[in-house]
Design brief:
Blueprint lengths: L5 E7 L3 H16 L8 E5 L14 E2 L6 H14 L8 E2 L3 E5 L4 H13 L4 E5 L1 H11 L10 E5 L3 E3 L1 H14 L3 E4 L3 E6 L6 E6 L2 E10 L5 H7 L5 E5 L5 E6 L2 E10 L16 E6 L3 E2 L6 E3 L3 E8 L4 E10 L23 H14 L17 E5 L6 E5 L3 E5 L10 H9 L14 H4 L14
Parallel strand pairs: 1-2, 1-12, 2-9, 5-16, 12-23
Antiparallel strand pairs: 3-8, 4-8, 5-7, 6-7, 10-11, 11-12, 13-14, 15-20, 15-21, 16-19, 17-18, 19-20, 22-23
The structure holds flavin-adenine dinucleotide.
The site of flavin-adenine dinucleotide (FAD) has 38 residues, from helix 1, strand 2, strand 15 and strand 21.
């Protein structure tokens, strides 16, 4: 495709956010008689699903301690449910299985899910939790679990298939997707002012509005826009905390046990909900019985034909290299630095065996292939959805985002003039104003 000299809407990134925004924006423009998909160009330096959206586990859940996150996720789950087959979405549900230290947090999630009409069952107490789990899996054996939140909605989607489906929908609306085109800078008429053109390695493209869905490359684009490298945050104590880095990176730990996905069926022969277990119990090696950790740990897993086995992950770790020095490229499984190693395989497969007897002695079937990838996180690990430089809409999900299919729809509505109450709690100004989201006791940075 020849590059156009000017477009109304230029979207950077063909991942979940860029594609969802393009598709929904095309529909919005048409519905309002303001244009259509031909006004939109998506550019991607690699290709469709080349970033985090193409390697994500694909879990879709509502379980969040923060009310604003829960409401936003409920909206996105609704969008996934509009076309499960088309989006390759498996609505099997989701379970948060927790120790006593998280009991109260999860109880409040369950209460608030009731308030917003999000269907879930909440089981409390060690005995009842074990019984509930055994009605699903006869071999359930995790100890120290005192609550189970069973979300009846949610589940997971096949990562790349859903992205290709979105791209097809967008193209059917007239959206152009230009791959192999890297954005290298921005042009404006005044310092810090509105962007009037995007510079790419294929030439300059004039535009009225930019949308950025750059995932792990959010910091790279942020730097191109000459936005501040650090922020000031008003803490819960009312004190101002200066010089907090705007972006840090975490390495996400995921892998696949290469057994028949049918191994993980429920007692009644169905495919189970996505399982997420957090635990304070000491975790011992399923390989040699040695102690792996006596600190809190967490894992998630699901049978997944797309990955060819039982796929899942464990808590990520923060990358302590200075953000400016972290190599985001080559990304994902091609990275020499940020793919999971033997420690992850040992921990995760042992944790699977800790939870269900059927996984004991299965360590050797762990798929020894590169997996995992890094994500860029904001100062509070929650998304920033906001406009910068007057006409650049940044969608930076802080790595919560595969499940957020609906965010592109809400962004499209905002671009067409309809402000979204669901996106409002995620404005950049929350840092200076101290309007922060509550923090949970989960070992994961995004719960
Ligand atoms: C291993 C892993 C597992 C995950 N699992 C889940 C999960 O189960 N559930 C969940 O909700 N979330 C999950 N996430 C998080 C989720 O994948 C991301 O939050 C989400 O995919 C981000 O989407 P995006 O569209 O912003 O970015 P991406 O999907 O990364 O897309 C960004 C695109 O921008 C392009 N790009 C970057 N810079 C430029 C440039 N300068 N010029 C042109 N193009 C550019 C890239 O090539 C890329 O294709 C996971 C993340 C990882 C890494």
């Amino acid at each position: 495709m020849a590059i156009p000299s000017h477009v109304k809407y230029l979207i950077i990134g063909a991942g979940i956010h860029g594609l969802s925004t393009s598709y929904h924006l095309a529909q919005q423009l048409k519905a309002q008689g303001k244009g259509d998909g031909r006004d939109i160009l998506v550019v991607d330096k690699s290709g469709i699903a080349a970033g985090a959206s193409g390697i994500a586990c694909g879990v879709v859940r509502n379980n969040y301690f923060q009310p604003a996150m829960r409401e936003l996720m409920a909206h996105s789950v609704g969008v996934w449910e509009t076309d499960p087959e088309g989006y390759s979405y498996h609505p099997v549900g989701y379970m948060q299985i927790s120790p006593e230290s998280m009991h109260e947090d999860v109880a409040s999630i369950a209460r608030q899910q009731k308030d917003i009409g999000y269907e879930s069952t909440f089981i409390e107490g060690e005995k009842d939790s074990a019984e509930y789990m055994k009605t699903l899996f006869h071999d359930w054996q995790a100890k120290g679990i005192t609550s189970v939140l069973h979300e009846k909605r949610g589940g997971y989607a096949n990562n790349t298939k859903a992205m290709y489906a979105l791209a097809t929908r967008a193209e059917n609306e007239g959206v152009r997707i230009l791959t192999g085109c890297t954005v290298t800078g921005f042009k404006s008429d005044s310092a810090g002012g509105a962007i009037r053109a995007v510079e790419t390695d294929k030439g300059e493209i004039g535009c009225d509005q930019v949308v950025i869905g750059a995932g792990p490359w959010a910091k790279t684009v942020w730097d191109m826009l000459e936005l501040p490298k650090t922020v000031t945050i008003k803490g819960a104590d009312g004190n101002m905390h200066d010089n907090v880095p705007m972006w840090i990176y975490w390495s996400l730990q995921e892998g696949t046990l290469g057994v028949d996905p049918e191994l993980q069926k429920t007692n009644d022969g169905k495919f189970p909900p996505v399982i997420h277990v957090d635990s304070n119990e000491p975790l011992y090696s399923d390989f040699d019985g040695s102690l792996i950790t006596d600190q809190m740990w967490g894992i998630y897993y699901k049978p997944d034909f797309h990955f060819g086995g039982i796929q899942g992950g464990a808590a990520p770790y923060a990358i302590d290299t200075a953000p400016d020095d972290v190599a985001v490229d080559p990304y994902g499984v091609d990275s020499p630095d940020f793919v999971v190693g033997e420690d992850f395989a040992h921990m995760w497969t042992s944790a699977l065996a800790h939870c269900q007897k059927r996984f004991e002695g299965q360590f050797e079937f762990y798929k020894n292939e590169p997996s995992g990838g890094i994500g860029s996180f904001t100062p509070d690990s929650f998304p920033v959805f906001d406009v910068f430089r007057e006409n650049c809409y940044l969608i930076a999900d802080s790595n919560h985002g595969y499940k957020m299919l609906g965010v592109g729809k809400l962004v499209a509505e905002e671009l067409c003039g309809q402000q979204s109450a669901l996106l409002e709690p995620f404005r950049f100004s929350r840092y200076a104003e101290g309007k922060l989201h509550p923090v949970s006791n989960s070992p994961f940075p995004w719960s």
